[in-house]
TrEMBL record:
This is GNAT family N-acetyltransferase. Its EC number is 2.3.1.-. Keywords: Acyltransferase, Transferase. SUPFAM superfamilies: Acyl-CoA N-acyltransferases (Nat). Residues 7-187 form the N-acetyltransferase domain. The keyword NADP does not apply. GO terms for molecular function: acyltransferase activity.
Length: 187
């Protein structure tokens, strides 16, 4: 096990895409995995990640001292309007304006390589985001039903995120009675 000091965070390049895809797909749930073993809902491809790069989604990677990628975070600055927020049931209506502002950063996904979870890599990537983008509002959605990604919810709450709303759908991908929670953190 490496200490967190052995890792650094940098902006990803196109050469990092295969490692990002491997880490992402290594964390996708399957029918035989418990929900805490696979938390991402669908696989991705190199073409999809490259398309995200082109759509202004930034990827940052955590690398070890040998420059091997051990985790990544994908985020963007979404352009939201009132219509895009109608599906959200707000627990705290006052937070609606925060995620409509120009300092809002949406976190698409954060994942670490199998065998490296629980070593502080995701926390390190979030701390780097906070340092590079002070006075920002970070948000993310996490699945709560029909499978519950409780580990991710707890991780985000430990990082200072709070649940401010939820989205419910009869069907999302292959999941019936789907619910995800919206979490935010102000820096």
């Amino acid at each position: 096990m490496q200490t967190i000091e052995a890792f650094s965070v940098r902006e990803a390049t196109c050469q990092d895409i295969p490692a990002i895809v491997d880490i992402h797909n290594g964390n996708v749930r399957t029918p035989t995995l418990l929900s805490h073993q696979g938390f991402l809902l669908a696989t991705t491809t190199a073409e999809e990640v490259l398309d995200q790069f082109k759509k202004c989604v930034q990827y940052w990677v955590a690398v070890d001292c040998t420059e091997r990628i051990r985790g990544f975070v994908a985020f963007s600055w979404p352009k939201l309007d009132e219509n895009s927020l109608t599906a959200i049931f707000w627990y705290d209506e006052s937070e609606r304006k925060a995620i409509m502002g120009d300092r809002h950063i949406y976190i698409h996904v954060v994942a670490t390589q199998k065998g490296y979870t629980g070593q502080g890599i995701a926390r390190l990537m979030y701390k780097n985001l906070e340092r590079h983008f002070p006075n920002s509002v970070f948000s993310t959605f996490i699945v709560r039903q029909p499978i519950c990604n409780q580990r991710s919810i707890q991780f985000h709450q430990q990082q200072g995120f709070k649940v401010i709303g939820k989205v419910e759908r009869e069907q999302f991908l292959d999941l019936k009675n789907y619910e995800s929670v919206l979490l935010i953190k102000r820096t």
